[in-house]
Amino acid sequence: MIRTRKHLLNRKHAALFTALIASVVWWTATSAVAATVGATITLVTSDLVYLDAGRSQGIEIGQPAEVRRDSATIASLEIVATADNSSSARIIEQHSAPIVGDLAFVEVPDSAAAAPELAGVENSEITEQPAPKTKSAKSKRLEKQVTGRIGVQWYSQNDRLPQNYDITQPSVVTRLRMRSLFGSGLDLSVRLRSRRNFYPDGAGSRNRTAWDHRYYELALAYRNPGSDWEFQGGRILVGSIGGIGYLDGAYLQYRLPGSLYLGSFAGSQPDLTTTEFRSDTRKGGVCLIWKSKADAHRDLSLTTAFAGEYSGSEISREFIYQQFSLSSPGGFSIYESADVNVNRGWRAETEGSSLSLANVNVNARYQAAKRIAVTAGYDSHANYRTWETRETPDSLFDDAMRRGYRTGIELGLPYHVRLDLRETLRDEPNTTKVYASTSIAAVTHGIVGGRFGLTARYDSFENRFTSGLQRSASASWTTPLRGDLTVQRGQTAYRYQSTDTKADSDWWRVALDFSLGRHWYGSSSYESYVGTNEDVARLFVETGFRF
Question: N or C end: fewer C-beta atoms under 10 angstroms in the chain?
């Protein structure tokens, strides 16, 4: 009974908080607007994506972004590093894994996106734009104060197989960033989602769930360029240290002489399934960061950190994190990170060593010519035991190590066509078996004055358990009424290695994104899948207010 009351209080507080946030931002709605900068994903790692747009287009560290594929939002991002014409972003949430060629849309202040540079476009193709109207200092301040959106979503699934897994899910989504509250250096970030599930066979209570409120981010941050101190508190994501994830706690950073920054954090890990608060898993650590100056010839950053995760009084995990990134004006960029577990107590006995490598990730990109870029990468990931999984049988960890090599080339062809070729090789631990995956994509958005676009993609993959391929083609049209219409058709074929059986699926999808005036937006999609193990149709509709 106590738990039930607590959940009811949490739901009431969530509803009241959402209403309060809506009230706070509504009065600034006519002035607090943000522009959206589009960028193409050029590289994807385990937790980062790389974009072909950066500071010259108004992108800054901390800005939110969305990845859209055929007009559907598939992932949420946060910018963690920028260069003049490139940037990297951490994956905050994803419904589908981003891939090279997907479009990311970054929310930036209107003034920052007034004159974006167009990569790969000849000067003769750029028409002169009229000078923007001069705005008052108050208007510019309000423009930068609030970014984000509040929307209402409706999702429905019609399962046409006998099991009838139908579902209807209304949702309310809030993603806001309010800068410089009350004229101070405080920023408020809010990202939450409230949803409810309805099932078929009547309208009784057993056929619907209670409202489920997910708190992904709720944080206050102090970021003042004139101060040596930086602070984050609430439900935060510690962007300086990979592997920490979400934290209910605080992060404090102090600027030392010589472009050095000393940071520390502490808090508890929320329930990763329900996002509810829990205090049984605690995290803490310190980090030292060095960044090149903003006017430096090259963008360079180095991070070293020691972090720990604890379950009660027991060690769950302690590790050393190291990260290096470099972006040079010659078109070369590289990102590298590594985790090394420090094994003490029960971990040393279980792992059989005092140090063990957990993760290594290296990605490099070189712009060899104006229309030619090459990429290469390596990653190695291993599962590690925590206090909760300390008694898991060794057999489940024998094949935990995964190593892969990636290479690719991006070609700019005539008629605004871009061709992406990717190859990945992965080996299987304790064997000589090597698995290959290939991706080929051709994209153009330059047909009929830039209003029409075509995309064709072919992917093949194999691993220890399955192999298969996916083919797809899509056509898009930017309508004169500020809308984007996309139609897509595809096929997927799998083969299960253990049983030598096949599973095929044919699918099609139509999506529409549109704007109503300067702030109101809407999007909808309908898709149908018919195959060996599925026969389902899905409808998604969203409308809301963008600040």
Answer: N
